[in-house]
Amino acid sequence: GAVVSQHPSRVICKSGTSVKIECRSLDFQATTMFWYRQFPKQSLMLMATSNEGSKATYEQGVEKDKFLINHASLTLSTLTVTSAHPEDSSFYICSARFPGGDSPLHFGNGTRLTVT
Amino acid sequence: DQQVKQNSPSLSVQEGRISILNCDYTNSMFDYFLWYKKYPAEGPTFLISISSIKDKNEDGRFTVFLNKSAKHLSLHIVPSQPGDSAVYFCAASRGYGGATNKLIFGTGTLLAVQP
Between chains, do A110 and B49 touch, taking CB under 8 Å as contact? Predict the structure, then answer.
């Protein structure tokens, strides 16, 4: 079964509004979660690393004021796309890894964001 | 700079035959490699992984081969089934087991298994 839950699965919003996407680890605590973005027919690009209780680490070229990340608990990280524009339309996916050991990343089902 | 490359955007295979998906990487510091399968509008699903201390790892119909000197890995699926039709991503990281190790993904290969 799913180990990472992401909500909503799809959202349509108007330009200028903000959208919040939630990512939850199910039945395990994730001190670190990762947010990826995928454009059509392209690879998954890491946007930022979400750290529980501290600031997120953003990849080069990702605007931290645009993509606000909050990791307030060991099972929840949120990504807020602020003042959304049509070019922010994309597929956003979160992931987490079981703590310890040789464990792969598990991904949520993603959120399809469409900004009109 | 694409550190992980999948040069074949698509592959078509007959049911029952072998599917071979290839992946090349440029960063010699990568020592953990994974394959994920992805359906449209869903998140990737982990398939199989290999660490750099091995050159082969097998799990059922899936086998991953790693050639460190060539910086090349491949995923073999045999026998291929129509349900295997999906986009396959290879991914690499420096180190494993730590929660903070970042995965770098390839561009994906769309596999179509024909009945």
Answer: no
